[in-house]
Amino acid sequence: MNKLASFSNDADRSQLAADLLKQMGLDGKTLQAGDLTVRSPVDGLPLGKVKTSSAAAVDSAIAQSVQAYERWKTVPAPRRGELIRVFGNKLREHKETLGALVTVECGKIYQEGLGEVQEMIDICDFAVGLSRQLYGLTIASERPGHRMAETWHPIGPVGVISAFNFPVAVWCWNTALAIVCGNSVIWKPSHKTPITALACQHMFAAAMAELGDAPVGLSQLIIGAVETGTQLVADKRMALISATGSTAMGRKVGPVVAARFGRSLLELGGNNAIIVCPSADLDMAVRAILFGAVGTAGQRCTSTRRLFVHEDIYDALVGALKQAYAKIRVGNPMDAQTLVGPLIDADAYESMQQTLSAVEGKVIGGERVLEDVYSQAFYVNPALVEMPAADHTVQEETFAPILYVYAFKSLEEAIRQHNDVPQGLSSAIFSNDIREAELFLSAAGSDCGIANVNIGTSGAEIGGAFGGEKETGGGRESGSDAWKAYMRRATSTINYSKELPLSQGIEFNL
């Protein structure tokens, strides 16, 4: 059942937000007594007001987080996993409601809102299993009667800074792992999407209450703009800062954390590309390109920005892509028929228009639509830009639905241009030639953290580590062994003999 189905396009979205919060157990008055006005990108009108965190409140939250960590780190990991199991069940119970709130607050279509909550459920399942698999190593020693071992221990309070485009999933990627690894968490959501954060924090608090023995302050929420995040990042009590956002943001966060010898996990910009070879299934490629380029109105870090098409199939593929673009339904994301919702705000729209006005290629689409219906919201037709031949492709990411299309002659040249950008997040090749596919995945191929074959750049599963190289930041979240970022490693040598031999055969006798 679509939680939004009973609401018309002209529904009072502030009341809708309050009703959705009430369904998740929060007082609807939560949105009536604050100093930060939150607007829905659906119509640009206020959803409500939330209270921001003062500098003193942030300092108090950090102090409480340290205390919670000191207790939580000694709790057996499987017991820590039990908290995440309970929280995952809360998410299952409220999946449709939270998914609807995601749609109302950040503007992605309802199907994507549901998908975001499902990501949270999936990472909770992963983390519960992980709580019994925080494996170390046994290492052979060169000395008789000795054994070496590697073990992993909690690292300390973790700060999570998330972005508007995935207002809840990225927090959960970090928090589910951080909690089972024995850490406390402070979350600073985007100031554009704090309402979904309030809902998540409420559910997590309910899970803590159900568990019964989780320390106060284990998970906390601070709300504010840049200065709030700056305070969190600079505080030496925060062992790890996991920050998702622009490369510009990462350039500020990284040095500050490094200066105090903290640890940072950066998930920054992407300038993602797909290469389509002559042997590719073109129908499959068009569908993947379409979702990658226009899904979430092009506001994913994994959105497809660049497309390289072999010259032999250029006309066929681009022609099919133009036909597909003509069928895209742009509109209210609460409508089940809509495929592309609004940009987050006016700044996003202006950035898109400035980019398109300066581009050298042939632009199709990109214009504002539905202004007569939603005068304070920003809906656009996704833009397709056919680019002239050039030694270098577009170097900067614009967080909007703009797809630059290039023709290529050889795969080697396409790979060179594919890699010749500052970012390195997600990439894909469409080919039914195993040699082309394997070349793309090899050391001579894509230089991105994610490299796919016959699927697009968007829509990663939680089982694999998520992140990228170069200006994308180098951090890894979610699956595989990404959990190690939330722990510290200890190497131990145990002597169970009656002798004291030194390593490397050193003699040191009195």
Q: What proportion of the residues form beta strands (DSSP E)?
A: 15-25%
Q: Pick out the low-confidence regions.
A: none
Dominant shape: globular
Mean pLDDT: 96
What is the number of E strands?
23
Largest sheet: 7 strands, mixed
**What structural class do helix, strand and pairing data support?**
alpha/beta
Computed Rg: 24 Å
Straight-line distance between termini: 81 Å
Classify the helix fraction into a percent range. Answer: 25-40%
Quaternary structure classification: single chain
If strands are numbered along the chain, what order do they take across the biggest sheet? Answer: 12-15-16-11-10-18-19
Present the secondary structure layout.
Layout: H1 13-23, E1 36-39, E2 46-50, H2 55-72, H3 77-93, H4 95-106, H5 110-130, E3 137-139, E4 146-154, E5 158-161, H6 169-180, E6 185-188, H7 194-211, E7 219-221, H8 226-234, E8 240-244, H9 247-259, E9 263-267, E10 272-276, H10 282-294, E11 304-310, H11 314-326, H12 346-358, E12 362-364, E13 368-369, E14 379-380, E15 383-386, E16 402-408, H13 411-419, E17 423-424, E18 426-430, H14 434-441, E19 450-453, E20 465-466, E21 469-470, E22 477-478, E23 487-495
Parallel strand pairs: 5-6, 5-8, 6-7, 8-9, 10-11, 10-18, 11-16, 15-16, 18-19
Antiparallel strand pairs: 1-2, 3-4, 4-23, 12-15, 13-14, 17-21, 20-22
Helix pairs in contact: 1-4, 3-5, 3-7, 4-5, 4-7, 5-6, 10-11
